[in-house]
Amino acid sequence: MKHRSLIFVLLVVGLALAGLRLSYAKLATAEERFSQEAALSAAEARRIQETVILFSTGTVPPGLNITDLLRRKGIDYNTAMRVVTDARPVYNLRMVRVGHQIAIGRSVLGEFRAVRYQVDLDRELWITAARPDASGFRVELKPAPSSTEMVGVTGEIRDSLFNAVTDAGEGAELALQLADIFGWDLDFYTDPRPGDTFRVVVEKKTYPSTGAVRYSRIYAAEYNNAGENYQAVLFREPSGKPAYYEPDGKSLKKAFLRSPLKFSAPITSRFSRGRFHPILKHRRPHLGIDYGAPVGTPVQTIGDGRVVSAGWNGGGGKTVHIRHSNGYETIYMHLLRILVRPGQHVSQGDRIGLVGQTGLATGPHLDFRILQRGNYRNFEALRLPPALPVAKTDWDEFVATRDRYLAQLPPLPGASVLAKQQPPDPSRSLPSLR
Question: With CB atoms counted within 10 Å of each terminal CB, which end of the chain scores lower, N or C?
Answer without folding.
Answer: N
